Structure formats: structure tokens, C-alpha cells
Amino acid sequence: EAQVTQNPRYLITVTGKKLTVTCSQNMNHEYMSWYRQDPGLGLRQIYYSMNVEVTDKGDVPEGYKVSRKEKRNFPLILESPSPNQTSLYFCASSFRLATSNTGELFFGEGSRLTVL
Amino acid sequence: KQEVTQIPAALSVPEGENLVLNCSFTDSAIYNLQWFRQDPGKGLTSLLLIQSSQREQTSGRLNASLDKSSGRSTLYIAASQPGDSATYLCAAYDPYAGGTSYGKLTFGQGTILTVHP
Description:
The complex is a heterodimer. By secondary structure, chain A is mostly beta strands.
């Protein structure tokens, strides 16, 4: 089954304790992205990757890191989480066609993070 | 800067009604527009993707239209059912925005739809 898998789905942590949210897709997609969703602010892009070893900042990259060592995986790293990073996080992926079209975007189920 | 607005923010209808959700965008230079559904606590599921060269797309009881010149897209849901209750989001893709070779996908805030029996 084609899917984007995120882990963990729920996490409560404390300020300053490094954490990683994993994202894996099985559709051989080139493009992967991380979003956060907050009430009243909608979906905001954190980082994205157009292919292996190619990553770039989205709209709200501060406090986050990413890496893309393999095509299927795109982990999101919070080196020193703070309470303002409490949010619902989504990973997404799609094919990147020759015309730079996003194509259909597939989302993971989301990871709800609470930083105390 | 592209801005995507969805009206209404929330909509409650009785089962069986036909309804229209609206999505407007400020920059008409979009490459495609996508409609998503989001159930509470879940991820987004793609419903329909309309390329800029297309006027509409249909899937079952759903029909999405795109009018680039007026900066509008509509999602029409026929014979609504309680199972249609969810948040519906639209997203406009501009390949030349964002200052990168990828472009930018801009989401609306969503319309919360409730269909009651």
C-alpha cells in the first residue's frame, strides 16, 4: 500500500531534550516536505527536499533540522525543543515531474508533539 | 506573495444537500490547484488536482472547477452525507514563487464541513 509513515504519532517531551520525528515513504517520490499545523495559522512549511542530499528551508525553519540521506526517509530533528514548537506535524511527498510540477501530494497521518 | 482564502470558514448542512466550497487566490500565475480533505486528528488526503490548463475535475460526487482569471476555485459536493464531514483545504502551486527552483505551495485555512443526519 502506498503510504507516508511518520513516527512517533504522539510525543510529550521537555524543553531542551533532542528529538527526531521520522518520515518514510514507499512511493519512490523525489520530493518530501515537513509542515506544521497550528490553530488559526494553518499549514506552514518547515523544510523540504527535492531529492537525496538536497534540502531547503520553508517558511518556518527556525529550531528545526532535516536530512535526506536516502530517498525514502526524511527525518525532522528538533535539537533543543521549546514550548512554541508544540504543534501537529505532517510529512508529505510527491513525484517531481520534469516540468517541476508538484504532482499530487501525499501526507502522513501526523505527529502531535507537546513540549513542556 | 500568494494568499489563499477559503470561505466560509465553517459550514453546517443537512444530509442530502448539494454544497459549494470556495477557494480564492491572489496571484493567478498558478500551475495547479489541489483540494484536500482532513479528518480530525488525521493527515490530509488529496481529493482532486486541477492543472492550470484544465477547467474542472470530477471524482464521484465531487467536482472541482478552476478559473484562473478570476482567481477562484470551487469544490462542489453533490448529495452530501454525514461521512463527508471533515475540513476541506485547497492549495495553490506557483512554480516561480518562493525564490527557489521548486516554487511554492500555498494552503488556505480550510472550511470545516458538518453534514448532519
